[in-house]
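Page 42, continued from yesterday. The earlier attempt failed because a stray header line got pasted into the input along with the sequence. Redoing it now with the clean sequence only.
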Amino acid sequence: MNFDKLERISNVEWKIDTSAGMRVPAIIYASEDLIRDMDDKVYEQVTNVARLPGIVKAAYAMPDAHWGYGFPIGGVAAFDAAEGGVISAGGVGFDISCGVRTLHTGLSLEQVMANQHALADVLYHHIPAGLGSTGHIHLNSPQMKAMLLGGAAWAVEQGYGERRDLERIEEHGCMQGADPGQVSQFAKKRQQNEMGTLGSGNHYLEVQKVVEIYDAAIAHAFGVHLGDVKISIHCGSRGLGHQIGTEFLKQMANSAKDHGITLPDRELACAPINSAIGQSYLGAMRAGINCALANREIITHLTREAVQRIFPGAHLDLLYDVSHNTCKLERHQIDGQVKELYVHRKGATRAYGPGHPDLPPDLRAVGQPVLIGGTMGTASFILAGTEQSMALAYGSACHGAGRSMSRRQAIRQWHGSQVIQQLADRGIVIRSPSKRGVAEEAPGAYKDVSAVVESADQAGLARRVARLEPLICIKG
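This time it went through. Structure tokens are written below.
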């Protein structure tokens, strides 16, 4: 990205002043090296977001920002319905409520390494993964409706998961305001057999070891200690979420002129929040959030079953589950006034600071766990939300490493079997139904996740708590 276009505010904050129809400035949080490596599309897309009606304060890009559909991935923006604010399907993304949940295993590193391949095999065979993967759950129409209304709470009621999990999930595992009637029959049909599946792309289940602690007090509060073995699950709303995004993006683009909206980019399709299509999308999108929450809860249940086959008596407690592709109605202080805003986070993780009433009581004093996925060859991180972040970017942080090259470029540079062998040589076991999928997700296709997380920490978006490195990765 061209530095001449940016005003440096600090070592990790850059401002783009309002111009050419921008209603608010744009802010990018990243180190100089990360800014230099960002494609120019990030600049174009974040400034386009700043042109949308009803946007409040600024359009933001996180340290892992890269080109996306309409909004940059790593984009954050909030809109005021009372000021004609809009909701954008592109600002949520196709994988509605894609997110990460991390589980404590209570197992020692020695136990896991002595059974590494056996554990990898049982996880791989017990949890469906890959493009178009299906599970053993088939939902009829009433069950589909109940799932879209109930989310993870529905999954627990069906025997998939534990009730105490719900306290460690956003919205207590159930997004209110979901309207299954706004979800098309085709979207529901796509999801009938996909509950409890990882899917493909960058989704994964990973067994990890804690290799570094940055903040001992917060780590202790989170139940994270050096040498611990954790399991992280990264997936979303599968075919249902993708179909919702596809259908509403088209509807919003076609109806923009009817609402007096001039789109700087057709992919930035949106609709006034209070319009019929805006409310319809909200109902469908919230149903998509519940689908993702239910899906991760079911996968957690399957993971517990698989681990107990190798380690009878093992119990996996949930640390936290947080999404990074959503739009939610939240209360934020703007110029000394508390306002209700529709906060879009696309490839950006909610990062509420200490004292926030939406956090579980036993975590409220230290802030929300912020779960950052890396790559299967580098590391993942656990961060904590900060009070400062609430003022910086609506309580938001990065969500992962962020791609540095396209999937097409990646498969030209790497072969899946080559990647698997290189990681095996480092003691990391990969299981995947697709060698192509492994090549697309080669560690070298991503930014340096450590640099991304360090920028988020320096900016005050979230505080580093722990670094985790992979032992086993189940890839879609």
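Notes: Residues 3-404+446-475 form a domain with the tRNA-splicing ligase RtcB fold (CATH 3.90.1860.10).
Reminder to self: strip header lines before submitting.
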